[in-house]
């Protein structure tokens, strides 16, 4: 006897079948989401699920100002970058940064495969786009310390985890190669260091930024490649530099059409995407994609100061300075200016030339906090000799140097201290014992007034922590910094070939 199934019963059966399919799909095992799986297995599993459009999205990085959650989801964008000065809002706090990064990250996680983004920043000496963040000494400073690797490991770990989010760190060329190597060791699970400013970039003609580097193969191997041998051995830049240099005119490439028309092989796309995903998995982005706040605690400036002179004779040292004196003069263009202390790549590409919008401690304010409460601290930017002489100062602290600069904007033919710095030195040091503190990103010409100075200190670019300078001037910590090369007497001594230069 044939059993007749009603139309209503058929509908119920179809619904049940659909429900089984939906539940099965919802419970489908995603190997790439399982942190217990081997790294390569996770990568392979994810890549076989990805469409061409999703792979191209992972190869794409967009500057923050052009990004929206909708755009991230539509094009499966793999990376967002904040260049110099690129912030969520003026004076954006750490909380605002966390909110913005997490908004972008949640958009990426809501896509079909939920691949998290990288968030990159030009953090040359602290993520100084974050308002009230510590701005560390510039990266010329490690050259003056014997403990550069240990110190910079701690610095970069702190700067990158204040807003704790696995990110890309773009290290500028002034970052020492050994420092970058140390960073890579300590931050594998916190910051991905990007090899940038590679072999030969420091050997341009006449030392001019972005000029050509002309050298023979022996010079390349024996001079410029030495700091990067470890990176090259590990296959950076497509196995011993077998890569296409970016000297051709920039073009917009329609990658998807190029692949579909066989102009670009799919293997080339897979090679790039595999390396991107490998870093994301290694960094733990799939398990911990969202940012959180950390607690900054460390101030390292004092360890980078270099004592260049102390006393006009060996038996008349001026340093360490006495705290309990009657009256002290603090003078110079750089004594009360956080912008000058921080240098280029601070908030903006070329830095800022005053303290706003930076939060920190100037050298002047640090001195006021350090001396005895009974000591009178007088601040004048550029006093004349007739104004200084009658006041009977116990000593003077003169803080002078360079204005902020970055890259080719800092090219100089004479390497001098900006005016009125030299005038201040001449006027003040003639009538009162003085220590001159130089704020600069490189050695500068000091010989014309060296004999007038009692003590001379290279503070480089100490960032927001002027207290570190005062700590050493007043003897709370000793001088430990050392020069890697002799400070030049005049620019005539400098070779135009960077590999033999004292800079």
Question: What is the CATH fold-level name of the largest domain?
Answer: TIM Barrel
Biggest sheet, strands in spatial order? 8-13-12-11-9-10
CATH architecture grouping of the largest domain: Alpha-Beta Barrel
Order of helices and strands: HHHEHEHEHEEHEHHHHEEEHHEHEHEEH
What is the class of the largest domain in the CATH system? Alpha Beta
Strand content: 5-15%
Global structural class? alpha/beta
| Tally of separate helices | 16
**What share of residues is helical?**
25-40%
What is the typical, i.e. mean, pLDDT?
Answer: 79
Ranges with pLDDT <50 over ≥5 residues? 20-26, 142-147, 155-164, 166-177, 244-252, 498-503
* Number of discrete domains: 2
Ends distance: 101 Å
* Number of E strands: 13
Overall 3D shape: elongated
Radius of gyration: 29 Å
Assign the CATH superfamily of the largest domain.
Answer: Glycoside hydrolase, family 3, N-terminal domain
Query: Main beta sheet, described?
Result: 6 strands, mixed
Structure description:
There is one protein chain. The chain is α/β, with parallel strands linked by helices and 503 residues long. It has helices at residues 7-26, 39-49, 52-58, 69-75, 94-109, 148-161, 177-186, 217-224, 229-233, 255-260, 266-282, 338-342, 363-370, 385-388, 421-429, 467-473; strands at 61-63, 79-82, 118-121, 163-164, 167-170, 191-194, 292-293, 306-310, 327-331, 376-380, 395-401, 434-439, 455-460. It has two domains: 7-198 and 237-293, TIM Barrel; 301-500, Rossmann fold. Strands 8-13-12-11-9-10 form a six-stranded mixed β-sheet, sandwiched between helices. Strands 1-2-3-5-6 form a five-stranded parallel β-sheet. Helix 15 links the parallel strand 11 and strand 12. Helix 4 packs parallel to helix 5, helix 6 crosses helix 7 and helix 13 (363-370) packs across helix 16 (467-473). It is an enzyme of class 3 (hydrolase). This is beta-glucosidase.
């Amino acid at each position: 006897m044939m059993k007749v199934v009603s139309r209503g019963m058929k509908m119920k059966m179809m619904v049940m079948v659909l429900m089984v399919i939906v539940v099965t799909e919802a419970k489908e095992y995603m190997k790439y989401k399982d942190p217990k799986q081997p790294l390569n297995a996770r990568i392979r599993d994810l890549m076989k699920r990805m469409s061409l459009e999703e792979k191209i999205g992972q190869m794409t990085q967009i500057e923050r100002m052009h990004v929206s959650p909708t755009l991230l989801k539509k094009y499966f964008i793999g990376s967002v970058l904040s260049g110099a000065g690129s912030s969520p809002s003026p004076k954006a706090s750490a909380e605002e940064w966390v909110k913005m990064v997490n908004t972008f990250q949640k958009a990426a996680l809501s896509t079909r495969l939920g691949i998290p983004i990288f968030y990159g920043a030009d953090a040359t000496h602290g993520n100084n786009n974050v308002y009230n963040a510590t701005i560390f000494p510039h990266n010329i400073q490690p050259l003056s310390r014997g403990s550069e690797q240990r110190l910079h490991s701690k610095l970069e770990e702190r700067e990158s985890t204040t807003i704790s989010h696995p990110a890309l760190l773009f290290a500028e060329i002034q970052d020492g190669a050994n420092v970058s190597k140390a960073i890579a060791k300590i931050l594998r699970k916190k910051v991905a260091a990007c090899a940038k400013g590679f072999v030969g970039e420091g050997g341009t003609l006449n030392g001019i930024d972005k000029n050509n580097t002309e050298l023979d193969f022996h010079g390349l191997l024996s001079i410029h490649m030495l700091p990067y041998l470890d990176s090259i051995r590990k296959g950076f830049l497509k196995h011993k530099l077998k890569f296409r240099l970016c000297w051709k005119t920039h073009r917009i490439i329609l990658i998807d059409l190029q692949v579909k028309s066989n102009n670009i092989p799919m293997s080339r796309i897979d090679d790039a995407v595999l390396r991107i995903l490998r870093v994301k998995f290694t960094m733990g982005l799939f398990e911990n994609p969202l940012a959180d706040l950390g607690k900054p605690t460390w101030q390292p400036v004092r360890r980078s100061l270099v004592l260049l002179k102390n006393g006009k004779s060996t038996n008349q040292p001026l340093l360490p300075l006495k705290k309990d004196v009657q009256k002290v003069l603090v003078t110079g263009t750089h004594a009360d200016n956080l912008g000058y202390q921080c240098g280029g790549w601070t908030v903006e590409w070329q830095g800022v030339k005053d303290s706003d919008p930076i939060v920190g401690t100037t050298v002047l304010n640090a001195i006021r906090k350090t001396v005895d409460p009974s000591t009178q601290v007088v601040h004048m930017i550029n006093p004349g000799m007739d104004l200084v002489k009658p006041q009977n100062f116990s000593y003077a602290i003169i803080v002078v140097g360079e204005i902020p600069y970055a890259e080719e904007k800092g090219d100089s033919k004479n390497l001098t201290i900006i005016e009125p710095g030299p005038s201040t030195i001449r006027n003040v040091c003639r009538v009162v014992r003085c220590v001159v503190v130089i704020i600069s990103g490189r050695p500068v010409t000091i010989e014309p007034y060296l004999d007038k100075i009692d003590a001379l200190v290279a503070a480089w670019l100490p960032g927001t922590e002027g207290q570190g300078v005062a700590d050493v001037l007043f003897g709370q910590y000793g001088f430990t910094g050392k020069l890697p090369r002799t400070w030049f007497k005049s620019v005539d001594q400098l070779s135009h070939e960077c590999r033999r230069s004292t800079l």
